[in-house]
Sequence to fold (458 residues):
Amino acid sequence: MEVFKKHYVAIIGGSISGSEAANLLAKNGFRVVVFEMNKLPYGKIEDGLPSWHISLRDRQQKEIDKKLNQENIRFVPFTKIGNDIPFKDLVENWGFSAVILANGAWQDRTLSIEGINKFKNKGLIYQNDFIYWFNHKHEPDYNGLKFQIEDNAIVVGGGLASLDVVKIFMIELVKEKLKSKFNIDEDIFTLEKKGIDKVLLNHNINFNQLGINGVTLVYRRNAEDMPLKSPRDESVESLLKAKKVSGKLLNNYLEKYKFKFKPLSIPLDYVEENEKFKGLVLQKVMLYNGRIVPIENETEILYSNMLVSSIGSIPEKIEGLEYDYASLKMKEYTDYHVFGYNNVFAVGNAVTGRGNIQESKQHGKQITKQIIDDHLTEDAFEKWLVNLNDTIKTNVSKNIDSIINKIKNRDIQPDDIIQRIIDKTQELNDKNGYIDYASWIAKHTPVRLETLIKNNKA
Ligand SMILES: Cc1cc2nc3c(=O)[nH]c(=O)nc-3n(C[C@H](O)[C@H](O)[C@H](O)COP(=O)(O)OP(=O)(O)OC[C@H]3O[C@@H](n4cnc5c(N)ncnc54)[C@H](O)[C@@H]3O)c2cc1C
Fold:
């Protein structure tokens, strides 16, 4: 099947799923522009995975580099679609034959307690901001939000990311107490890898000697309901096995990192004193046929100066796109073809809102293959044309008429459109001082904490 190789396809987001899509398109002869809002294209790998995942981070980043640093791919960093370039402008005026959203899920779900957001960044912290700070706070030129690690903090969540948050708290608290009380230097990497219990045992120190109360993870269900282990398939046996493993994993974490766990509790209200956040009121619940049912008159107050909400991330809304509550609205019967457009698609966390690296990679690959097969081949265009012919007289807009004329003339992206895409992206890159992929990445990769520790500078 012949592919129109002249096309320029735009991808929004250069991380796991975006680089996968770009690579597959480039390998199939398409030209690709990858717009990335940050200087680096690594998304959650750089700013979401806690920085102790050194080898996972380095391996994934190398893979992304290999995928993006190709002749057919123009990387346009530091350019946010929706801000620097309006989405509709990109789709309607730039002349791309397709636009693929691979922009992930970067907006924290809002904690649903009325009025609580007045404490945002003053007692209430959202997970994405918190992990970004944790990963970058050691950089000499870091000028983002700053947080203090507080003992007694509350973390509301239940997924892997919320466990990362409680681990960060406990590791930082123990590191500080080991230094201030015992003059012992332990870095976060050792504490994370060996576990707080083993590190303390090595120093012959009992956890109680540190004088740490500990952070509490609040979860609406039980430990075995946490999505810590994905079931192999949908069978009852696999589901039960995954539950058992999740329960075990949580117990291991509790032992290793010494935090507290409060299951079957949902945030109901907050405690305020002198306009400051002072605690969380929890509604106790039970599970009835898998459903969460509040237990009448059973509440509990956890007093604390700090609450971290880690209840999941959703795609950041982009003007020009429609959403069904938190999810990008898709065309009927598809889960990747974006509603309202013929040539806009979505891959990775932008669609799934969850999942791990492998799942996001797989999703990027599978869906891009489908986009190529179903929408970007000569056959696909012809099929599309034939299907359209029946309805064309009644309800097709002028815009589609002109597209069809272009398709008939095999003239979807004539040279002047291609040249305009090249000129416009060049202009953006000139403004940012971007010359080529490798030198840009080298210039903007921040100093790593492990390097500072190795050189005794942290
Ligand atoms: C705290 C945390 C810990 C995790 N730990 C693990 C783990 O240990 N193992 C694992 O396998 N998975 C883990 N994951 C999941 C994994 O990181 C994601 O599944 C994966 O990174 C999703 O890839 P993606 O490309 O779809 O999205 P992202 O990685 O989020 O990439 C989206 C990209 O789009 C860019 N972008 C967003 N909006 C725009 C815009 N408007 N214009 C231009 N660019 C834009 C972003 O800057 C980003 O580069 C974790 C996730 C979190 C949040």
Observations:
- Residues 194 and 256 are 8 Å apart (CA to CA).
- The pocket of flavin-adenine dinucleotide is lined by residues 12-18, 35-38, 41, 43-45, 48-49, 80-82, 102-104, 106, 131, 160-161, 164, 316, 318, 348-349, 355-357, 360 (CB under 6 Å).
- The radius of gyration is 25 Å.
- The first strand starts at residue 8 and ends at 12.
